[in-house]
Design goal:
The chain is of the alpha/beta class. It has seven helices and eleven strands. The chain has a single domain, classed as Spore Coat Polysaccharide Biosynthesis Protein SpsA, Chain A, CATH 3.90.550.10. It is globular, with a radius of gyration of 17 Å.
Length: about 230
């Protein structure tokens, strides 16, 4: 069986959330958001290990108060990240010591991800080299210039809103990040973009409406609501 590792970038400051705590440590029911995310990933049987990437000052805290406290046994490394998400993912990749066939990347603040979605993304990447979770756009999408004037309107049927998890062959994603660093390409909003730049085809897997990214107080309230619904079933 191919070996798969998940890299979970969670080194952001969470400035849009406000307050004095990084968003990945805010409570979601009775656990930090990051712990809920890691528990969801751990349930996927196709994942062999998890590398957690956090702010350098929080490495010890995350090891003790999240990984060990909540029994996230698939996390085999907690490593310091960089200033940008792109840097953190690359640092997670370069921290890998064991050989892996596939790398799955999932945002630390997407706690509502379902193990079945993780499995489907992994299976699709194994067959097609790279796969991402995404949802078709519901609204009309327009390009806007710096003066907030519309410059283009896109065909909604061809536009998808990208999520994580995303999965790639290990050699592809490592090369993509190293090439981006060498070329000074530092504005990638997701990892698939870097792989696409190398000409690697990326397949899309239908994502989930539940798989929200917690970046604002509204997102946190929605995640709390979804968890309550889940436990009331």
């Amino acid at each position: 069986m191919p070996k798969t590792v998940a890299i979970v970038p969670a080194a952001g400051a969470g400035v849009r959330m406000g307050g004095d705590r990084a968003k990945q440590y805010l409570q979601l029911k009775d656990r930090p958001i990051l712990a809920v995310t890691l528990e969801a990933l751990q349930k996927c049987t196709m994942l062999d290990a998890i590398v957690l990437v956090v702010p350098s000052k929080d490495v010890r805290y995350c090891q003790k108060e999240i990984v060990e406290k909540f029994g996230i046994f698939k996390v085999n490394k907690v490593v310091p990240g960089g200033k940008r998400r792109q840097d953190s993912v690359r640092m997670g990749l370069e921290a890998l010591s064991d050989p892996y066939d596939l790398v799955l990347i999932h945002d630390g603040v997407r706690p509502m991800v379902e193990p079945d979605l993780v499995k489907t993304v992994i299976q699709t990447a194994l067959r097609h080299r790279a796969a991402i979770a995404a949802l078709p756009a519901k609204e009309t999408v327009k390009a806007v210039n710096e003066n907030h004037q519309v410059t283009a309107t896109y065909d909604r049927t061809k536009v998808w809103m990208v999520q994580t998890p995303q999965a790639f062959y290990y050699e592809d994603i490592l090369k993509a990040h190293r090439e981006a660093l060498a070329k000074g390409l530092d504005e990638a909003t997701d990892d698939a973009f870097l792989v696409e730049k190398m000409g690697v085809p990326v397949s899309v897997v239908p994502g989930s409406e539940r798989n929200i990214k917690v970046t604002t107080p509204h997102d946190l309230a929605l995640a709390q609501f979804l968890l309550r619904l889940e436990h009331s079933d």
